[in-house]
Amino acid sequence: MIDLYAQSEADLEALLRSWGEPAFRARQVRAWLYDKGARDVAEMTDLPKVLRERLAAEATLGTLTVVDEQQSADGTRRRLYRLHDGRLVESVLMPYADGRRTACISTQAGCAMGCVFCATGQMGFGRHLSSTEIVEQALRFATELIAVGERLSNVVLMGMGEPFHNYDASVAALRRLQSDLGIGARHLTVSTVGLVPEIRRFAEEGMQVTLAISLHEVEDAARSRLMPINRRWPLAELVEACRHYVDRTGRRITFEWALIAGRNDDEQTAARLGALLRGLSCHVNLIPLNPTGAYDGLPTDPDQVARFVAVLQRHGVPATVRVRRGIDIDAGCGQLTERHLRRAEGEASTPA
Ligand code: SAH
Ligand code: SF4
């Protein structure tokens, strides 16, 4: 089967030419896929019937199958997909009151980085996603939004997996989100655990995409306990790569900080963070920890979050607290997959 979502305009032109169709048919088909949000060849009513029949017989629109979906009280939709080889990945759609519709999508099934607080890290590495599998997650939400007169406005590569461990596919996906889905670079974010060579490489891509770095601790020993990759790329090298990125691109960096009660949320830590980031063009996103199965940490309470923010402000570091979304449906990435894997295990070990 031909996956239409995997065809560039040139690929599709060549394919349709080999079927005896004029070149403009490729643009017509792509307009259906990306602008009009078709989910079935049957919808492409301005194509000749024979072409529609041949496409229906020989081509598919994507390869992802929805296996579960949950909607939270705040409108957040968390979806579990099965890939063609049976692997599971999650995507989330977050609607905001100001009209933004943000998709959070995965770049790998599982993750090799092993951050101890992360449900995806706890399950280990499955495989890299192809750029098309990454794009399809956003495209599926985009087509559903078109159907109700809305538009997918933002995409963050912050779902399962480490985008810079799957660098080429993630960067290719970022380019296609712009060229095929029409999402502006400034509405795209890629988040990394802190792979220093790839941060430097990304600085050369010439993209106006927002780069987010998951920091979570300001001292090497503590950060290494939380995020094993810190042993390979310690804080001094990471911060130097961030400075290089800001100098090279003129873009402000976002730092992610999961607030864990009694561990990294005291005022002294905030002051050290303020000192570390002083003079760097950046923004800190604070996210109270989402508790996960194999990690005993708890989220910081709102009063302590406010004290942490105040210290950062005194250091001239802008910070915002990210609203925890989809809390009632375990919306921390990897949690839905974890639940499914547990259930599958339970079924396998239950005598029939
Ligand atoms: N691998 C990339 C992107 C995916 S994780 C990265 O680590 O940056 C997206 C963000 O969610 C990261 O900032 C990560 O540290 C954070 N995160 C993971 N598990 C979390 C949890 N249980 N609570 C709060 N934030 C979490
Ligand atoms: Fe991987 Fe990011 Fe989770 Fe760390 S936080 S294990 S890098 S997905």
Write up this protein.
The protein is α/β, with parallel strands linked by helices and 352 residues long. It contains twelve helices and 14 strands. The chain has two domains: 2-60, DNA polymerase, domain 1; 65-344, Alpha-Beta Barrel (TIM Barrel). The protein is 39% helix and 19% strand. The strands form three sheets. It has a ten-stranded mixed β-sheet with strand order 3-4-5-6-9-10-11-12-13-14. The chain has a two-stranded parallel ribbon with strand order 1-2. The protein is globular and about 70 Å long. 41% of the residues are buried. Bound molecules: S-adenosyl-L-homocysteine and iron/sulfur cluster. The site of iron/sulfur cluster has 11 residues, from helix 4. Residues 117-118, 158, 162, 191-193, 214, 256, 258, 287, 289-290, 292, 332 line the site of S-adenosyl-L-homocysteine.
